[in-house]
Amino acid sequence: MNTDLVGLLDAVAGLRVLVVGDAILDRYTYGRSERMCREAPVPAIAVESDVDQAGGAANAAVNARALGARATLLSVLGRDVEADRLSSVLTASGVEISGLSRERDRTTPVRQRVLADGQMLLRVDRGEARPISDASARELVRRLDENLSTVDVLVVSDNAAGVVTPGLIAELAARRGRGPSTVVVDARDPMAFRDLRASAIKPNYAEALRVVGAPDRPAGDRTRHFHDLGDELLARTGAGLVALTLDAEGALVFQPGRPPVRTYARGGTATSTVGAGDTFAVALALALAAEADGGAAAEFASAAAGAAVASTGTAVCDADELRRGLTGTIKIGSRDGLADWRAEATRRRRRVVFTNGCFDILHGGHVSLLSRAKELGDVLVVGVNSDESVRRLKGPTRPVNALADRLRVLAALSCVDLVVPFTGDSPTDLMELLRPDVYVKGADYTLQTLPEAPLVERWGGAVRLLPLVDDASTTRIIRRIHDLAAAGPVEPTPGGSR
């Protein structure tokens, strides 16, 4: 169990969050399609339902509330029925909406998505992106002043829909020392917030490319491309932390004077990624406000976004689902579900990596191999020897840790997407069902001595042998424990702990 992150989930509950930015109404039109139109080569949709959800800054506020925080939203809407519907959604979610203003000649932004049989066919956008009026801007600043001293964290959500103007950014920067110490920005143009000196800023990949002046998406590994550009991202945004989000690839976290930290996407099958960035930003903000370090905060945010994308429609993180994800219970699978799991990965064009082992006492060598294995694909599945299998392979005194404990520990690693036990001496039955694209083992094997290699090659997969960490093995750990026990009790050093 990842007790640090579970504790963080408890710590963010009750924090007071102020979200400022573009509130959007996300509307989902669900239907079925059984025929094509006569007048054009397009499907005819029989509409079954319309569902309204919060989007943009409104979704950030809803996610804050879903994580247990108290959320207040400041934004400007039109005087229209869409504003009424969005207000109803926010109220039902427990978000404080007294900071919402209405502007007579403004149209509330709407993003309508039309889906048939689970597939999105069309998105229709309504609402102009012109800046809010001077009167609305003054009212927004007045309400900002009313709330800044009462909250623990400020989140600025700029979707370029006109609420977050250069004037508002200047007002925020002028008040930087008078409000909460934690300020997190999620914006289309991160460099516009340089003078704000945000605690953290969350660009996605395309936004980060614009920050460093790269006009095109470079070929190759996205994480490697940005690995050495952290200082430039920090300097150009003025932020104390930059969390570069990479969708299913997780995030890269940059802080001054520290090496980059990589987090991995968590959670189950993604139903929709709409709004996942809102979830990540507000979860990151809450974690930082709860005094988590940057790496742990980004890990928490990745876990929250992973839980959110399993929901239908715009992503909202369910705290109970997040707790299950953090404790690893949703990542422990079985042989019976592997074929369906593989089919879903194929449908989503995910490259599946598989490795296996006893993982009796998890150590740095294990973590290094698993982290590097994850980098070879999109999802990492780990096969784990049953207790009986470990005894056959390692002897009657093993395993030290029972199967249930080994599964839970592995499932708590963010680089691991699924753990599955097997009873044989080899995981070939699992591999036949999973058919991994890449099979990973340590370099203490060779292709000639690895019995699973011909099986993987039969379906066109690749076998990768990764270098091992020197002197890292469960056997050595057990031997050292025995040596220490034989040496007798050791007196604790003054000021130390047992």
UniProtKB/TrEMBL annotation:
SUPFAM superfamilies: Nucleotidylyl transferase, Ribokinase-like. Residues 354-455 form the Cytidyltransferase-like domain. InterPro entries: Bifunc_HldE, Carboh/pur_kinase_PfkB_CS, Cyt_trans-like, PfkB_dom, RfaE_dom_II, Ribokinase-like, Rossmann-like_a/b/a_fold. Gene3D superfamilies: 3.40.1190.20, HUPs. ATP binds at N204, Y205, A206, E207. One of its GO terms (cellular component) is cytosol. Residues 354-498 are annotated as: Cytidylyltransferase. The active site is at D278. It catalyses: D-glycero-beta-D-manno-heptose 1-phosphate + ATP + H(+) = ADP-D-glycero-beta-D-manno-heptose + diphosphate; D-glycero-beta-D-manno-heptose 7-phosphate + ATP = D-glycero-beta-D-manno-heptose 1,7-bisphosphate + ADP + H(+). Pathway: Nucleotide-sugar biosynthesis; ADP-L-glycero-beta-D-manno-heptose biosynthesis; ADP-L-glycero-beta-D-manno-heptose from D-glycero-beta-D-manno-heptose 7-phosphate: step 3/4; Nucleotide-sugar biosynthesis; ADP-L-glycero-beta-D-manno-heptose biosynthesis; ADP-L-glycero-beta-D-manno-heptose from D-glycero-beta-D-manno-heptose 7-phosphate: step 1/4; Bacterial outer membrane biogenesis; LPS core biosynthesis. It comes from the Bacteria. Residues 17-317 form the Carbohydrate kinase PfkB domain. GO terms for molecular function: ATP binding; heptose 7-phosphate kinase activity; heptose-1-phosphate adenylyltransferase activity; phosphotransferase activity, alcohol group as acceptor. It is an enzyme of class 2 (transferase). Keywords: ATP-binding, Carbohydrate metabolism, Kinase, Multifunctional enzyme, Nucleotide-binding, Nucleotidyltransferase, Transferase. Residues 1-331 are annotated as: Ribokinase. Pfam families: CTP_transf_like (PF01467), PfkB (PF00294). Catalyzes the ADP transfer from ATP to D-glycero-beta-D-manno-heptose 1-phosphate, yielding ADP-D-glycero-beta-D-manno-heptose. Homodimer. This is Bifunctional protein HldE. It comes from Streptoalloteichus hindustanus. The gene is tlmC.
